[in-house]
Design a protein that fits this description.
Order of helices and strands: HH
Oligomer: single chain
Strand content: under 5%
Helix content: over 70%
Number of strands: 0
Number of domains: 1
Distance between the termini: 54 Å
Largest sheet: none
Length: 78
């Protein structure tokens, strides 16, 4: 719910900035600054996602080893 609210606010702000840009009332430097900030946030998010994916891969790998060992043990008992 909060995420949707923030998304709507962001869209509204961008619409207002578009209107100002059409009237040459927003400095290019300000837009460049916002682009830079968003690109930095994107890289941070990308890094966090990659770290979490690596952690999940590690967990999956451990579970696969456990499974193989269990299958090996159970097949020897049969």
């Amino acid at each position: 719910m909060l995420k949707e609210f923030i998304k709507k606010i962001t869209q509204w702000v961008l619409e207002k900035e578009e209107e100002l840009a059409k009237e040459c009332k927003i400095p290019i430097e300000e837009i460049d600054k916002q682009i830079k900030i968003l690109n930095e946030k994107k890289e941070e998010l990308k890094k966090r996602c990659e770290e979490q994916l690596n952690e999940l891969d590690s967990l999956i790998e451990r579970l696969e080893k456990i499974k193989k060992e269990e299958e090996r043990r159970c097949s020897l008992k049969a």
